[in-house]
Amino acid sequence: DLYRKVFVFRKDPSDAFVVLQAQLEQPLRSFTVCLRSYTDLSRPHSLFSYATKAQDNEILLFKPKPEEYRFYVGGKFVTFRVPEGRRDWEHVCASWESSTGIVRFWFNGKPWPRKGLQRGYTVGATAAILLGQEQDSFGGGFDLYNSFSGELTDVYLWDTGLSPDKMRAAFLSLRLPPALLAWNSLSYEVKGDVVVKPRLRE
Questions:
Q1: 93 - beta bridge partners?
Q2: Residue ranges of the Pentraxin (PTX) domain (predicted)?
Q3: 151 is in which domain, residue-wise?
Q4: How many structural domains does the chain have?
Q5: pTM, 2 dp
Q6: What is the pLDDT of residue 23?
Q7: Contact of 186 with 179, CB cutoff 8 Å
């Protein structure tokens, strides 16, 4: 249980990452991914990378610069511009549904304008899921200058689109529905220089 704990990625740039194990029974027709990050990086970095053998950017949450998030589904992406960070924790949730292709993006508990991506697509179930690196091949092919350095916590993946009040609940660290990946019951493996520490403040 990682309650009130964080992964600290200590080096910059870094070859370290965390492998997450999720039990996916079938391909995803919709999903929501949420996480909280704290970094002073201004270069591009990867937060959440979900690759299949067919598509290395099957799901990717990527930050090319401090005021921008890129959210990939099936190798294509939409961009969300956010306020330039005040060097504080940032909480993001991104959800996608195949039937409409609608992407919803929530930043620090607030919804951004919805966008469209990959209508009718299906996300493959046999996946390598990593924190802190961007996969260019299944489980590997890292560019160190896309690596994450800083602190990550509250990582979740659901096989459904969360309701607006659940998106807010994720931001406030309240009770959440059962998830494929849940921070309080995370099955993970650290590779390289990543340390689990208590969170410094709420």
A1: 34, 106
A2: 3-202
A3: 5-198
A4: 1
A5: 0.97
A6: 81
A7: no
